[in-house]
Amino acid sequence: MDSELSDILHDCYKDTRLWCKTFLPDIFQRPFCSMHDDMIAALDDESIQRLLVLAPRGWGKSTLVQKGWALKRLAYGDTRFYIPISCSAGQAKLISEGLKGEIEASPDLRKLFALEKDDGSWAKDLWRVRSELMNTDTLVMPRGSHQQVRGLLQSRFRPDTIVLDDVEDPESVRSEEQRLKLKQWFLSDVMNSVPQDRPWRIIVIGTILHEDCLLLNLKEDPAWTVVEMTIADENLKASWPEYMDDQKIAAVRKMCESQGQLDLFYQEYMNQPMSPEDATFKQDYFKHYEESERRRESSRWENILLVDPAKSVKPDSDPTAMVVVGCNWTTGDLFVRDVVNARLHPHEMYERALELAGHYGVSAIGVEVTSLNEFIVYPFMSAMRESGMLFNLVELKARGKTKLDRIKMLGPLYRSGRIWHNRAVCAALEGQLLAFPKSRHDDVSDALAYMIEMFEIGGRYHNLGDAGYTSEERYQELEKEAALPPVEDWSVA
Q1: How far apart are CA 292 and CA 175, in angstroms?
Q2: From residue 146, how far is each of 97, 156, 178, 391 by CA, in Å?
Q3: What percent of the chain shows pLDDT beyond 70?
Q4: pLDDT for 461-478, tens place per residue?
Q5: For residue 298, which of 366, 362, 202 has the smallest C-alpha distance?
Q6: Burial of residue 195 (number of CB atoms within 10 Å: 0-12, 13-18, 19+)
Q7: Rounded to an integer, what distance in angstroms lies between the CA atom of residue 335 and that of residue 355?
Q8: What is the mean pLDDT of the chain?
Q9: pLDDT > 60? residue 313
Q10: Can you list the domains of the chain with their CATH numbers?
């Protein structure tokens, strides 16, 4: 083998992306996105034994793992006993047959690695492939969920590479009994089938279908490395525009909304599951308006700006959230007029907040100061002085045990139909509310929840009305309010 070819093979071994583009160009025609980079980096890190990949359907996760990465492991002899698992034995066999098809169809694979049938035939239930270059044999055995995996042993080798691909389906996750059975099978059979005396890897890939599904349980387990991909960010900006751009994403969301199935959009594309019967906030609660239609009426609204600053601008931290709320005290209706949901440096946050405050003519700016205090208030006041724009600045300190308690207090206002969303800006807010209390981020919904505290400080009260809000529910909410600490020591500029 010449040195140039040797270098190519060495580079492909280190980088699954390069391997896929070099040996499987017909499959991987689209460019990878940054989220794929995270997934590939985790797959290529042999120190990661337990890897969970969460991605929307159609995202190419199965193709990347079950064809690209799996073929690389077979070619380089990194696995001696490979088990692809899916929700049924039939589906697992289809994955396995696809792997065979790529080996047979690729002249490069057969020429460079001499991948070939070990015994001249490939059965569907169990087959062996040999890499002459690496002088290794690998056994491949597709299995369906709940089929026997534990105790398998072939030629002294136990399964060392197991990939579970969509082991849950929408029907099975509906049953608590089925969810429990799958978890027990996974923990007892799958996790105990790997060898103890040599390296092994278990990869789980799929889409979260239920708030108590196996994948979500693994996501919350610190022993697992998690790569999470969504079709877009919370502001519906495409993560992989070559596959689906902003306009297509907005169209899909609108279609789901029009059919009363907005929760399915966030489940299938954003990995945010919530059973409709258990949801605190439901799509039916969201009422929409157009700013242009309310322009004359809005001149009589009192507007407030709520700011929930981010503690940092790191990618895994909550973004800075700002919400402009218009209050019609005559009717008691509240209008979410504008939303900012972005990772901003401090000076950018002050500039954006003052821009919003000036545009909407707010009567007060409420800023959450928990754990930040003078690091937020003093610079904010300095920024106002420098800009020549002076507003009432209200310090908001967290009330209740957690932010979930604050957000939950929005429930009565939504159920009574008092809150209206500007359709053009509220996608992130609605996504967080629909996934509550298991949304990945809750910054926008938490910022909105502070309006209740702002109203109390300002002495603004209104009737919640009777729509969808029973006397018993009112009494329960009053009990919760009574349990909260009183408002004290507020500084008002």
Answers
A1: 46
A2: 20, 24, 11, 63
A3: 87
A4: 765 544 444 445 545 555
A5: 362
A6: middle
A7: 19
A8: 85
A9: no
A10: 3-228 (3.40.50.300), 235-271 (no CATH), 277-483 (3.30.420.240)
